[in-house]
Design brief:
Length: about 240
């Protein structure tokens, strides 16, 4: 479905190396202080649901979108947990003529930002005009699942969730992807280990069980990953396929 091109050329419009993307982000779509502040406010009012105090960097957004960027055919993409749109903006620059993008965000204030300030950007205009972009203001758990996505890109803070919710979300992702579809997500480096050390009682048990579940999925389904040291905190983008 998507091809790795040996010479580093890509299927879609943006440069391929993270260094180049960094340059582009400084010129093009860097996050404003206002967005960062509103993200932090969202975190302070609901830390477990937001799970991070700063939005993803453009380098991390680029790493998460890498499999989609390399895809040369029209694709259906689902972004889950879009927040203030750090990854969504990057997706906007990659959308080509027949692609469809669905964006899912549970927080109403974040969804307002996406609707008013992100999906109104010029990059999205042709796709929005043609009805190929949709914003779902809901939990991923409430979205219809029809196995129709080529790519799912998640910003969900899985390590902050209960095991039962993580299992449910993984099964939704599996059912929502086409057989060869790719699921990308990220984790902050060392977070699981540090959180386990620093916690006690039920919290420690929760982190341990979520970590075991994630490790088993990584072992069975991850086919590649990228380390993004320039993100704060440094993060690992993971790429999984559930086709086996
Ligand atoms: C760590 S933030 C990521 C934001 C953004 N993608 C980024 O990378 O900067 C996680 C986001 O997931 C959203 N979220 C949490 N649980 C969700 C759910 N069940 N369904 C949809 N979105 C959810 C939160 O509101 C928050 O915006």
């Amino acid at each position: 479905m998507w091809a790795r091109l040996a010479d580093g050329r890509c299927g879609r419009g943006l440069p391929s190396s993270l260094g180049e993307i960094g340059k582009r982000s400084r010129k093009g779509f860097s996050m404003s202080l206002g967005h960062r502040w509103r993200f932090l406010k969202g975190y302070l009012s609901n830390p477990h649901r937001v799970g991070a105090f700063a939005p993803s960097s453009q380098a991390l957004a680029a790493a998460l979108c890498e499999p989609y960027r390399r895809c040369e055919q029209p694709a259906r993409v689902l972004e889950v947990g879009a927040g203030t749109g750090a990854i969504t903006r990057h997706l906007g620059a990659l959308l080509s003529d027949h692609d469809e993008l669905h964006v899912c965000e549970i927080g109403s204030e974040f969804a307002d930002i996406l609707e008013r300030e992100v999906l109104t950007r010029n990059d999205f205009a042709p796709a929005v005009g043609a009805g190929r972009v949709k914003l779902f203001r809901s939990a991923i758990q409430d979205l219809p699942q029809d196995g129709s996505y080529d790519f799912i890109i998640s910003g969900l803070p899985l390590n902050a969730f209960e095991l039962e919710d993580v299992r449910k979300i993984f099964s939704i992702f599996r059912r929502s992807l086409k057989p060869e579809g790719v699921f990308s997500y990220f984790e902050y480096m060392g977070l699981r280990r540090t959180a386990r050390w620093l916690s006690i009682g039920h919290r420690r048990q929760r982190i341990r069980s979520v970590s075991t579940y994630l490790t088993s999925n990584i072992r069975n389904h991850q086919y590649d990953r990228r380390i993004v040291l320039s993100n704060f905190p440094p993060a690992r983008a993971r790429y999984l396929r559930f086709d086996d």
